[in-house]
Amino acid sequence: MNVSLITSKFRTCFRCTRSVRLSAKVESAQPATKKLKRFYKEVSIQKTDLNNSASKNDDMYHHFNVFLDKRCLKTPGGKQLNVQNESLAMSIANEWLSQKEFIAPTSMHFTSLINTCIDNPLQLKTADIVSHLVERLESDTIMSLEIENGELMQVQLSSLRPIFTWVNQQWGSNLHPSRELIVSVSETCKQRCTDYLNKFSFDTLIGLKFASDSLKSVLLTVAAFEQQIDCESAVKLSVLEEDFQIAKWGNVEWAHDMSRLDTLSRFSSAILFATFSSEVHNVFK
Question: N or C, which end of the chain is more exposed by having fewer CB within 10 Å?
């Protein structure tokens, strides 16, 4: 399947895909330390049956491969890049298709994430990722209020209230932003977060980890993943203090804009990756 019109087949949030396309312009402008010239002309996707005796209608017996010309894409570890979801395969293929004269690996977040899942260079287990995310709750960027600036604190409280209200309703928890320097999260809240995360596959958790690391916020990541807020709003909520200071003192446009779009690119890609990885496999029509 040729992927020249790949974006039109995405089955996901328009705002997320728009964020990825918009921020890709910034990625392509960043210099590379070592340039690799594009060595292929066409990008395509093929569906592979894992078991010839399996039902043709059973998606659990299919995976998708991305081909550069006639060569199947492999991970840095030399493993064949098998993708369980059609939309994710198209996202990866689109990254390779959009490369110009030289390949820019830093702009290929979907490819990097699937490589991490398949090669697993740190030998992580599902429990390791869940533990990492739960531990990050206490250092979540939206858990601490700026108590020395009353005006900013009111902005934080009003902007973040819907996020905490929704999270507490979903988890049956009692999380709230803290006025203390050291934030403490109860064991009950940690357990509720653990129970929520344990529902997901290894690949989905890798996406959620990458997203939360991009914003330094597990709570905003979960809200975006569950489509309670869009990716652009999540990024804005993660930098409320920065935007407050910019409104007061002014903005260095090129510097802040580049940084913001880079964060948006990474976060949006990770949320889409987690979403695709959590879906039941899609098959070609």
Answer: C
